[in-house]
Amino acid sequence: MSTVVQPCARCGARWAVQGAPMHWCPRCRGALLSPAPIDAPADRRNYRWVARKPDSLARRAQSPGSSRAATPTPRYAQMPRWGLLDAVPRAGAAPRNRLGRLTDSVTKLLVVTAGVFTLAALAELARYSVLLRNRTRLIHPVVLFASDAFVVVAGVLTLGFALLAAVAALGKLIEVRQDVYAAAKRRDPRSPRVLALGCLVPVVNLLWPGIFLTEVAALRGDPRIRRAIQIWWVAWVFGGGVALAALLWRNADSLQAKADGVLFTVFADAFAAAVALLTLWVLRTIEGRDLLGRSWTARRWLIAVDPAAPVIAPVHPGGTADSEPAKTAASADEDNGIQDREHEEVMAK
Fold it and tell me: What is the pTM of this model?
């Protein structure tokens, strides 16, 4: 087998030289380079690769003596504003939790929940009025049916909206904790599942929501947030006790106890409406706003001092203060001289 080959300038194939060198590549009909050993280094080859510009043939066709017409030096008419710019990477949106839609409507849900609980309190109050009326007169069946329907519908609405508001508040709590811990360059030690179990499981949710919010207040370091959470926590626990008492009161035996239970339910519904508004207040306090959604205005306290009062009487220039006693003494001597002359005149007479 021959060790001398001819490479093709077009396809790069190498053809062994058996006899006389070939001129064209049998594969692509490209030009074959001169024969050379198959393993010859670059300095021992009798050919080399040359890179030319695409317009080399057109420039070669021009006569050697011809030259291009002189053109003005390229320049910019104004300061160029292009260039290689490193675009600042945009911070990707924080991943939303599964409760994103409810979280966005947490304000509306809490306000509606407070309104529904107020409506339930009015329904129970209307039932108590019917009971008072029934002590002396019979109640028409239509009125009794309307009162019962009002109470049932209001009760169903309170349960539904209270559950939706609780889930929305949970989503808001998760987002608030993520933002607070991210600002502190820390990772939230409590997962969303732990937060959900602590906020939605009955009896357990009387303790853990306050702890979760207290951790947020500790990272923020704002005493107003801590005070708002403490007020809400006390009202939340008290509201849970009131709700439990209202449920147990419905199992009373006597008619008077049941009537008192209806009146106590009015108080429980009204207090639940207040707790819903307190929850909204706490969430907005954490965001730096008041209950109406207005941002807090910064207050700057300045040191107030009393006006300066001179302790020592001012000294007047030019001896004015010393001349006044002298004038007083001179006038006193003149008065004494006048009195002496008058006395001498009287003695002479």
Answer: 0.58
